[in-house]
Description:
Rossmann fold; single chain
Amino acid sequence: MSHVPESHPRYQSLRLRDAIVAGVDAGVTSPHGLIAHGRGEAYDYLLGEQTATWAMTAIDAAAASLLLAQHPVLSVNGNAAALVGEELVALSRTAQAPLEVNIFHTSSDRERRIAQFLCEHGASEVLLPDGTTELPGLDSNRRYVHPAGILDADVIFVPLEDGDRCEALRRLGRQVITVDLNPLSRTARTASITIVDNVARALPLLVARVQQLIDDTNIDRQALVDAYKHEPLLSQAEARIRSGAD
């Protein structure tokens, strides 16, 4: 990116592309993640490449939910690690929620690389699937979890999620918080709280909001959760996409 000036209108988009490519080169991100990122980038363009009011409301609810949880866990895949690894470590520390690697495309080597990558960005511990503990209702590699992590969590933060696991977690009665640029996706529809925004913009805001709620005990956390209205907020994001408005 050294050859692209920050004044370039596509600078941030190109920066994130480079981060994903670097993740593939480092063995953190699957090559399939390049396709997923490109799809999200298209939705971000339609959403105006900015954090909208519906996303801020969801961020408020997500921050409050993480702090109200008994055992929150942050699930990390290759794309999330490459794009917001440092921010996920910060969120883990601030919300006191352990990080757990969970990927769709089977690779124990890549799981270890993701964990190492997160440790290089400040994580003190990263949970890995043990290869035997399974999340009921799934057939893909995502069914393998850590027994003291996702399996035992009441609130799971799963940025860049796939719909199958989100559905499985919801069937088990778990609260799922996701970040998804497509308000029409199965994940966005199924999750308890969906932040329709670019994960690279949403994560710093979420970390800051969690810290603010910790610092200001006068803020009613449950009221922030109650203010979140899932379907209406997704509809706002969908309307923005369909309108094509500037």
